[in-house]
Amino acid sequence: MHKAGFVNIVGNPNVGKSTLMNALVGERISIATFKAQTTRHRIMGIYNTDEMQIVFSDTPGVVKPAYKLQESMLNFSTSALTDADVLLYVTDVIETPDKHNDFVEKVGKMDIPVLLLINKIDLTNQEKLIVLVESWKDLLPKAEIIPISAATKFNVDYVMKRVKDLLPDSPPYFDKDQWTDKPARFFVTEIIREKILLYYDKEIPYSVEVVVEQFKEDAKKIHINAVIYVERESQKGIIIGKQGRALKKVATEARRDLEKFFGKTIYLETFVKVDKDWRNSDKELRNFGYQQD
Questions:
Q1: Are residues 148 and 15 in the same domain?
Q2: Could you read off the pLDDT of 116-160 as tens digits, one per residue?
Q3: Element containing residue 215 per DSSP (H, E)
Q4: 14 with 86, same domain?
Q5: pTM of the shown model
């Protein structure tokens, strides 16, 4: 009998959801940085064996929306509660269990199996962890609580075992050679955006969107033109940097990762344009794939 199902990963920003997703799938699907709100879209990573297909889904962190982009991000997370066969709720040893009571309450009402994963346990001690586990038991009594460290992969194999145990019998949903639902261009934008998250401070990374305008591929190389959109002229100057050095650094680092990702020579050209207040524009959010008509 073949097993298949959707395993959705939800939780607050900066608790290590993307690191866990990559560890479970065995591919670099989600960008993972030390900054909150790294994931903006719902991203699927597909794990295949002859007897099984697990469709993991990483979602944006649960936040109280301050602008329309964050409203769309929260919608991605909320939708993950409606179509999962198994839910992985990721928290960590730093955040308090009552941080997002409304979302936790929705999780508590679900009829599907919920694995509550307490990440970053290497940052605490046994005594504090026991107290935290008891607090989560009070909030989500039906959930199975598993302490993990996604970064060191501690207990990740056990999480995978429990997921496999809980999957329903089903034929596969996707072709067996498919490992994500996203096109190649999506990963170009994510890798460039990851470098911007790493190299710029304060509001700059959150005001940026990346669009691939050209993606020409042959057997050995890929030519890519990418536009980095910002909300203000002052941000454009910061992204480019003095004599273009900052943008060159981003492009160089992104190109290296893209060559590893695609296994081909990459020719990458980057441009910076201003799209005023795009994060609050329904039209631009639709254009960038955050909303549907």
A1: yes
A2: 999 999 999 999 999 999 999 999 999 999 999 998 999 999 999
A3: strand 209-217
A4: yes
A5: 0.71
